[in-house]
């Protein structure tokens, strides 16, 4: 039965075996080149206007806003003499617009309410904004469109930093500066301290959580879409890799896309990130049940009645770790039913791991560093989907290392606690120096 299910998954293109890693990599690199040259292709390739060689001021405080896919976090960050991060005034709440549509005014009210009690502790703000935005030379960001199912339509096309400063001034909080940066750019910057310690040749930030994205250091100073002439040869690029579309999707992938809040957008993200994995797995299970009839009678009926499948529950089932599996533990399902569920989810994870490896490898190749084993590229990886999905890290590295070895490239993967916060703080402290 398992072999029959695996064959079906491959036909649905939900299998690493259904893809050529070499073809995927070449297509990814081609889309990166297109994105750097012009506003075409599926990868936005947005210049961040920040560098990866700044020194962090010690003892100076900065406000940080981390607008992530799930939560909104606000705090004050200070780096002490040892280079350690000190947090104060920390607050956390669900990201506005995640559960219901919000207005622009409601969004900024939430931010200012969190910042106002700390108004005497900061002059600048590092705003980690985890959504596609064109970054301007003045470090503001213009929202292109929402991802991760966020619903604040009035903000699309708006300058996020400008709106925040205006909202602060309405409360009498004046004279502040704000740096808007993508969470993956922040992830890259957060790796500087560790990377400098082992003489990294370059830096990459990669996130696989609610969504997915990549940032790397581009050495080409003639990037077609830069709005200013840069004297420095390198530039951090926000790839917006969740938008990669130069690969073949299966019919159920297309269904998930069509039923999402933003059909046709970020189609790469929708096959490997945490917010979609449960949805995709449930759709696969229901379609498998109706097409092949592989589940028991009661199991098939229970699946048909299931409206949602949380990734943590199917992940716990696959890992067989004894933790909560929710309705999947119902007596309606036989052990054979559950084994089929494991096979399907492992197929979803295996494909996601291959695509993740291709994504990271493309950033290493495009960055042009890492040829010296003594000076590897520092790859800071962040995101719960990467670290906590069953077998994801091992599978990603299993696909990635042979690809790098074939090209004579070397990396060192690290993990930085609170990477978006640390990176945003570094940007806020160094951008206006």
What does this structure look like?
The protein is α/β, with parallel strands linked by helices. The chain has a domain at 61-185 and 420-428: 2-Layer Sandwich (Nucleotidyltransferase, domain 5), CATH 3.30.420.40. 41% of the residues lie in helices and 17% in strands. It contains 15 helices and 13 strands. It has helices at residues 2-11, 21-37, 104-115, 160-170, 183-190, 192-197, 251-258, 269-272, 274-292, 297-305, 311-319, 335-367, 384-388, 392-406, 419-430, and strands at residues 46-47, 61-67, 71-79, 85-94, 124-129, 133-135, 141-143, 177-181, 202-208, 212-218, 235-238, 377-382, 411-414. A hairpin with a 5-residue loop joins strand 6 and strand 7. Helix 5 packs across helix 15 (419-430). The longest helix is centred in the C-terminal third of the chain and has 33 residues, at 335-367. The protein is globular and about 65 Å long.
């Amino acid at each position: 039965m398992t072999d029959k299910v695996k064959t079906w998954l491959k036909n649905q293109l939900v299998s690493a075996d259904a893809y050529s890693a070499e073809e995927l990599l070449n297509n990814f690199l081609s889309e990166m080149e297109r994105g750097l040259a012009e506003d075409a292709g599926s990868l936005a390739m947005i210049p961040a206007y920040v560098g990866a060689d700044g020194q962090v001021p010690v003892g100076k405080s900065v406000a940080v806003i981390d607008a992530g896919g799930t939560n909104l976090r606000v705090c004050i960050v200070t780096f002490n003499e040892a280079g350690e991060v000190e947090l104060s005034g920390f607050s956390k709440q669900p990201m506005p617009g995640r559960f219901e549509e919000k207005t622009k005014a409601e969004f900024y009210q939430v931010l200012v309410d969190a910042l106002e009690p700390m108004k005497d502790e900061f002059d600048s703000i590092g705003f980690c904004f985890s959504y596609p935005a064109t970054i301007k030379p003045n470090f503001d960001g213009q929202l292109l469109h929402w991802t991760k199912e966020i619903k604040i339509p009035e903000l699309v096309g708006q300058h996020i930093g400008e709106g925040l400063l205006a909202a602060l001034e309405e409360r009498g909080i004046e004279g502040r500066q704000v740096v808007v940066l993508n969470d993956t750019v922040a992830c890259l910057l957060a790796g500087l301290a560790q990377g400098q310690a082992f003489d990294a040749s370059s830096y990459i930030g990669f996130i696989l959580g609610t969504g997915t994205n990549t940032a790397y250091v581009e050495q080409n100073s003639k990037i077609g879409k830069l709005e200013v002439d840069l004297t420095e040869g390198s530039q951090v690029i926000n790839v917006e890799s969740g938008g990669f579309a130069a690969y073949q999707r299966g019919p159920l992938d297309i269904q998930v896309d069509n039923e999402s809040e933003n059909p046709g957008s970020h189609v790469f993200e929708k096959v490997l990130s945490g917010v979609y994995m449960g949805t995709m797995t449930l759709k696969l299970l229901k379609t498998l049940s109706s097409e092949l009839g592989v589940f028991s009678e009661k199991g098939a009926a229970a699946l048909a009645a299931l409206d949602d499948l949380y990734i943590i529950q199917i992940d716990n089932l696959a890992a067989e770790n004894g933790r909560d599996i929710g309705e999947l533990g119902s007596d309606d399902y036989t052990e054979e039913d559950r084994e089929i569920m494991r096979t399907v989810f492992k197929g979803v994870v295996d494909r996601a791991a291959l695509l993740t490896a291709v994504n990271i490898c493309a950033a290493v190749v495009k960055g042009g560093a890492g040829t010296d084993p003594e000076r590897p590229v520092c790859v800071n990886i962040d995101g719960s989907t990467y670290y906590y999905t069953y077998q994801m890290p091992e599978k990603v590295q299993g696909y990635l290392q042979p690809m790098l070895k074939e090209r004579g490239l070397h990396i060192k993967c690290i993990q930085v606690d609170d990477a978006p916060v640390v990176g945003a703080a570094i940007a806020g402290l160094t951008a206006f120096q």
